Amino acid sequence: MKTLISIYFILYILLILPSALPAFFEGCDLDIYTAYKQYKTDHIWNRQGKKINIHNDFRQREYQLFADYYFTRNDCLSLHSSFVEIEEILNRNTRGFTDPELIWTHCFYSNGTESLCTELTAIIPVAGQKHELRYGRFGGELGLYYSTCVDLSSHPVYFDATLGYRAYSGYPSDQIRNTFIVGSYLLPGFYLEGRTDLHFGVFNGKSHMHHPLVFFNANYRLLKAQIRGVLNIYSGFYVSLGCFGHVWGQNVGTGGGFLTEAWFVF
Fold it and tell me: Domain of 124?
């Protein structure tokens, strides 16, 4: 039954929404991004970075919805939200919303091929802490975003990078966060993109749990890698398919999974 629901969600994104949304948002400088991710593992890295078996088959399904609204030429307001389902052997299954993130991006330098922006993120809890799903704490992040594009052998190649510092109220550790993206347009309407994400906790948090956690340990570090192919179906509508894996970490799950995405540019 859950597999059928997942298939319906993907088909709805790919087939129905593209024909319905453009008329509704006509004239808006708005991007809508949706994604479905599956992840599984039965190991974690402990605090020392040693891989250990937790004897627990952990599976996660995540449904993401992002919206970007460009209210000036240099300013964008984004909302990131997710609904997550978790299945475990040892612990009870759980589901619920992650803490939404509201992001203001301001571009203060641009010359046509490169840009430099600031990013201010507010983390707004939907409820209290929930096992493996969210911290349930207010937080914020201040960061820089840099983007550039060059031509290599007649193929445009773009590079994006972010660097930020995130802090939470209460027990979770502060984090240094970094993202690096490189992509190339290999064919008309198709590009390939690689990405790394680093969450580097400074380990100043206070854990409330006395058993291993795959996600949302108060103190954790994670390096994740991802690759995806993106296809432009028609003007303003894109779909992608990719995979990701956890490369290194401390107090976090190993493993990986796949993702499929669709987004609309109005």
Answer: 2-265
